[in-house]
Amino acid sequence: MHVTGDRIGDALIKWPIIVALKKALVNYRLVWLAGLRGSVFNGPLAPLAAGVIDEVRDVAGVGVSWREFMHPPPAGTFDIVIATEPKLRSALLLRRITHQIFISPVLNFRLSDRKPAVPYPTSVYEQMRLLATLAVGRELEVDPVIRIDAEISALARALLPASGVYIGFAPGAARSRKRWPLTRFIELANAQKKVGRTPVFFLGPIESSLRGALAMAVPGALFPEQSPLADGRGGPLLSIALAARTALGVANDAGGGHLLAAGGRPLITLFGHTSEHKFKPPYGPRIAITAREYGGTEMTRIPVERVAEAIEAALRTSV
User: Fold this and answer.
1) Distance in angstroms (rounded) separating the CA atoms of residues 59 and 57
2) Do 219 and 287 have their domain in common?
3) pLDDT by 10s per residue, the chain, length 319
4) CATH for 168
5) Residue that terminates a domain, selected from 80, 111, 136
6) Does any domain span residue 145?
7) Which helix (H) or strand (E) holds 78?
8) What is the DSSP string of 245-305?
9) Which residues partner with 34 through β-bridges?
10) 83, 63 contact by CB (below 8 A)
């Protein structure tokens, strides 16, 4: 299975399909080719990949440059090659690999040995599901749950005891254009505190420096990932285990939001210029609030009141 590269958000969207594919082809070796960049399955999500993905090839140099045609194709034979991305260059290069079955969505599946009877979906999750279904030759049984080992689950319980009602907030995003103003996260968190719920902030490496300012702005908020008890343990899997202990989460359309989603609890995701359909996670109830509802794509258009109302509606539904 080939990707140019993967990030935590993309990988988590695809993960239930990867597991279902491995179960359907249990006697096959599953090789994950990251052609241009390193894979999170060889990094922060390596514990998740263990026992499912048999081999991860980082920066494999395959399917990424026309110059590859000047050299022989990669050695070895594959039963099935799945080119996951709709890029003509990648498909032509990957088709050179010795194989029995080649699957690719390029040019409406004209290069693919198997073709679907339905249009190619919009969402990354459904795209992955269709490609894997073609590879297997039958509908997959998909279980959209991430299972966390007992040690990390116990750590999450210690960090967020069962006595509280926790509302998770993931205010980060790699690009400023995807971030709802931090002041609005703060306002929302303080409003939740006033009604007896405990704000829990999920901060990635980019926004970890905000902890001090957030702690002052939202007294009583929790930062479990930065707790001395966590002591750097668990990584993304701890984030997912913590998210599973929240009543609900609020996040930007970014990696932190996908970690909250993977916990399986209701999640309100805030969208600016990105598509709420393409990157919809497969885990648990999802509520999308878009800037387009307010006449544009700037995240500043989304009012606090709209998100606050969505929180109350989602909590009533999930009780």
Assistant:
1) 7
2) yes
3) 999 988 898 999 999 999 999 999 999 999 999 998 889 999 999 999 999 999 999 998 999 999 999 999 888 899 999 999 999 999 999 999 999 999 999 999 999 999 999 999 999 999 999 999 999 999 999 999 999 999 999 999 999 998 889 999 999 998 899 999 999 999 999 999 999 999 999 998 888 889 999 999 999 999 999 999 888 787 999 999 999 999 999 999 999 999 999 999 999 999 999 989 888 889 989 999 999 999 999 999 999 999 999 999 999 987 5
4) 3.40.50.2000
5) 136
6) no
7) strand 77-82
8) TSSEEEEESSHHHHHHHHTTS-EEEEESSS-TTTT--SSS-EEEEEGGGGTSS-GGGS-HH
9) 3
10) yes
Q: Is the pTM of this model over 0.90?
A: yes
Q: Is residue 141 part of a domain?
A: no
Spatial separation of the C-alpha atoms in residues 223 and 88, rounded to whole Å: 45
Same domain, 10 and 57: yes
Print the domain residue range for 99: 2-136
108 conformational bin, left if phi > 0, alpha if psi -120 to 50, beta if neither: left
Phi, psi of 103 (to 5 degrees): -120, 125
Residue 43 maps to a domain: yes
Residue 240 included in any domain: yes
